[in-house]
Amino acid sequence: MTVQPSDSILIVDFGSQVTQLIARRVREAGVYSEIAPFTMAEAAFARMQPKGIILSGSPASVLDANGPRIPQVILDSGLPILGICYGQQSLMHQLGGAVTGGDAGEFGRAFIEINDTCALFNGLWNIGEKHQVWMSHGDKVTSLAPGFRPVAASPGAPYAVIANDERRIYAMQFHPEVVHTPDGGKLLKNFVRHVCGLAGDWTMAEFRKTKIEEIRAQVGSARVICGLSGGVDSAVAAVLIHEAIGDQLTCVYVDHGLMRMGESEQVVSLFRGHFNIPLVHVDASTLFMKGLEGVTDPEAKRKFIGKTFIDVFEAEARKIGGADFLAQGTLYPDVIESVSFTGGPSVTIKSHHNVGGLPERMNMQLVEPLRELFKDEVRDLGRELGLPDVFVGRHPFPGPGLAIRIPGAVSRERADVLRKADAIYLEEIRNAGLYDAIWQAFAVLLPVKTVGVMGDGRTYDHVCALRAVTSTDGMTADIYPFDAAFLSRVATRIINEVKGINRVVYDYTSKPPGTIEWE
Ligand code: XMP
User: Fold this and answer.
1) Most buried among 8, 376, 435, 508, using CB within 10 Å?
2) Residue nearest ligand 1's atom 6 by CA
3) Nearest Cα residue to 260 out of 447, 473, 145, 421
4) What pLDDT score was predicted for residue 156?
5) What pLDDT sits at residue 179?
6) 222 carries a ligand binding annotation
7) Mutation choice for ligand 1 from 301, 352, 479, CB with most ligand atoms inside 8 A
8) Ligand 1 centroid vs 367 CA: distance in angstroms?
9) Ligand 1 site, residue 328, Cβ cutoff 6 A
10) Nearest residue by C-alpha to atom 7 in ligand 1
């Protein structure tokens, strides 16, 4: 059962890759929304009694006999409706307009010209102006259903935006939810606030309350176990779940000995000390280090760490008597990357480390309260829950930890050397006030030794590479352009203070073509 406030928007998902972004934009407008797959839209509609409906895009075609359809109750409801891309096409298809297969679709940036006034354009777009939007469609609307008028057009889409003011139904061929439609968020805001008349008083505090009710309804009196990775996501999920069900939750922190400086101590003191949450801290570093001995292949490292993590976690879960539910800090980007409407396989660039496979193996159901959130929203929620800023604002850290920042063989000694260099680098970044402007910064210890001179002597030590990138979601990234004085200050400190490193280089590769991590 889901609990929702009375003022809500139902988003009907026809399978677009970006449906969650619609929900995000609606949340940014201060309005609660829920997404329901089209197959369950009718039930969601009856349960939620929303104040407005948004229809998503889709990889399907309305011309296909089996193409998803809008439930008739929604069309008959008299509520405001906004159709996006496939949503527009299905509205026209079902209300008496026409759609034809695109011999030449439009993909990417396009400019639409505003031809008429429209409630969606209120305070935003005026007649005669041209605005950038993001198109991604094969089919297109070629004739309008009765009662609709065109209000904006692009060279490829004469009905780029259409309106039926009497029925308060609006639709657009482009995607307002993506960032490449710069005013898209405002168009969606106009729909939910101006057309649907919602107040815009939905906040993270409300989200917290709603989620707590949902978790209670899902879990009942059962036991939940949560694997903490040391990162922000699993910590926020755990604190939220603890607030919902108290000591029915046990957290297990499998410490592989490959964390950043001071991080394990911070997790333990935060959970046990600050939040008083039951926490099992397993120091499994010896097991991990032994298993990693001589392993140099990146995928072999990742697979070993992932599997060992699961083994240790499972053994600990058994010790505490098992659990019915497994809590995970899965975020929306993890969901989009892993689910595809068409079910086609995508290429594996890296085996990401998570506890995938564990729920089936241990016969557990999942509790994933952060599934619809993006990283920055998780941080907001973390602050809302009282997690300290320094913890919440921490740069992302990969599950396999420092092992994938030590190309070649990993050892405890190498991890210690890297940890020291990394800590100096991060300290300098914080001192320069740059930490929050950077998505991720870290040091990498190379398996390459070079000759140097220190004092009067020759040195023969490892090279350390520094990486810093900006990004919004980790999917693409740009290098952070430090000034030379900063980099040389960091290099000097690392070489002087960290035994085992005598040369420092800066990684100038964006993603793509590089990945953020080195392995
Ligand atoms: P790449 O290296 O693929 O990284 O460009 C993109 C983002 O994902 C993080 N990353 C991981 N996170 N488990 C995680 O939880 C992993 O196995 C993993 N590998 C990479 C990486 O730090 C960056 O933020």
Assistant:
1) 8
2) 474
3) 421
4) 84
5) 87
6) no
7) 352
8) 22
9) no
10) 474
Q: Is 230 assigned to a binding site?
A: yes
Going by alpha carbons, the residue nearest to atom 18 of ligand 1 is 398
Under DSSP, is residue 61 helix (H, G, I), strand (E, B) or coil?
coil
- Catalytic choice (93, 175, 256, 462): 175
Q: Report which of 271, 262, 258, 269 is spatially closest to residue 227, judged by C-alpha positions.
A: 271
Residue 66 has pLDDT above 80, yes or no: yes
**Nearest-angstrom CA–CA distance, 423 and 443:** 9
Reply yes or no on whether 464 is catalytic.
no
Instruction: Show the 3-state SS of 313-349.
Output: HHHHHHHCCCCCEEECCCCHHHHHHHCCCCCCCCCCC
pLDDT-derived band at 383, boundaries 50, 70, 90: very high
Over residues 267-289, the mean pLDDT reads 95
* CA dihedral sign of residues 37, 41, 47, 50: positive
Say if ligand 1 is within 6 A of residue 515 CB. Answer: yes
Query: Ligand 1 centre from 398 Cα, in Å?
Result: 5
Q: Is the CB of 399 under 6 A from ligand 1?
A: yes
Catalytic, out of 34, 93, 131, 177: 177
DSSP state of 196: S
Q: Is 80 in the pocket of ligand 1 (CB under 6 A)?
A: no
Based on the residue annotation, tell me whether 180 is a catalytic residue of this protein: no
How far is residue 194's CA from residue 424's CA, in Å, rounded to a whole number?
51
Number of helices and strands in the chain (H, E): 16, 20
Annotated catalytic, 85? yes
47 lines ligand 1 (CB under 6 A): no
Taking all residues of the chain, what is their mean pLDDT, rounded to a whole number?
Answer: 92
Q: Which pLDDT belongs to residue 230?
A: 87
Query: What integer pLDDT is reported at residue 307 of this predicted model?
Result: 92
- The predicted pLDDT at position 4 comes to 55
Q: 168: left (phi > 0), else alpha (psi -120 to 50), else beta?
A: left
The atom number, within ligand 1, closest to the CA of 350 reads 3
Closest alpha carbon to 5 in 58, 63, 47, 59: 47
- What percentage of the chain has pLDDT greater than the value 90? 79
DSSP secondary structure string, 442-489?
EEEEEEEEEEEEETTEEEEEEEEEEEEEE-SSSSSBEE----HHHHHH
Which CB contacts under 8 angstroms, 24+ apart, belong to 46-51?
A: 46/73, 47/2, 48/4, 48/8, 48/10, 49/6, 50/8, 50/9, 50/10, 50/79, 51/7, 51/8, 51/9, 51/79, 51/80, 51/196, 51/197, 51/198
Residue 39: CB atoms within 10 A of its CB come to 11
CA 352–ligand 1 middle distance (angstroms) = 7
269 a known binding residue? no
**C-alpha 389 chain-centroid distance:** 20
Q: Name which of 139, 133, 134 is nearest 59 in CA terms.
A: 139
